Amino acid sequence: MYRDIATKLVAAIQDGIFTVKLPTEAQLMERYQASRNTIRKAIDLVYQQGLLRRVQGSGYYITNIQLQHKTVVNLSARSLFNSHVHPRTLTSKILTFDTIHGDSALSRKLNIPVDEELYRIIRLRYWHDQLYCLEKAYYLRSVVPYLSTEAVNTSIWDFINEAYGIGIANSDDYLSLTNLNKEEAELMNLAQGATHLALDSCNYYKNNGLLDFSHTIFVYPDLALYFHTTNLANN
């Protein structure tokens, strides 16, 4: 339950419901009809993602990354709130949505059997009517037996969580600079060879089972990446 409340807190922050400071624990207990312990665990999850800062004796304040004008990709949030890596109001244009069987290249990359059945999704994503990224994603059908077109058009992660109760336990993320190949350039109507930031991600659910692999190329201007690190040792 505390994970669900944490997700609602993140949404409230991103939607501008909480803009400066979180309500008190008592107010959140009433708002979400939850115990103090559940609220504290939910707040702690959000804090771990770098969305809050703790002021002793005063409470939790919203981190100012949420108030910046430029688009911020919060990579700290991937493990618990994968759907919030990107802005919440992205729109999608589906280029490919089909079922394939993995080849030797995918088998090596994902450490899965050859011929593993996968959903393949290639889509362009837009933010304020401007191209934001090109995303190529593969989902294991052994884990996600059905994906709807509506989910692919909106939020795949919301659909998976609601339909199957599956969340991300951990992920491996690789950032790199990539030069657009001919196919990528044509899909985005950009110059072949242009350099952009790419993110390769493998997401895992419970017991370290692979759920998906994605390759995302970001092309939105003024894009900022955010990482949050918590120092657990007292110096």
Automatic annotation (TrEMBL):
The keyword DNA-binding applies. One of its GO terms (biological process) is negative regulation of DNA-templated transcription. InterPro entries: Bact_HTH_transcr_reg (IPR050679), Chorismate_lyase_/UTRA_dom_sf (IPR028978), Tscrpt_reg_HTH_GntR (IPR000524), UTRA (IPR011663), WH-like_DNA-bd_sf (IPR036388), WH_DNA-bd_sf (IPR036390). One of its GO terms (molecular function) is DNA binding. Keywords: DNA-binding, Transcription, Transcription regulation. Residues 1-65 form the HTH gntR-type domain. This is Transcription regulator. The lineage of its organism: Bacteria, Bacillati, Bacillota, Bacilli, Lactobacillales.
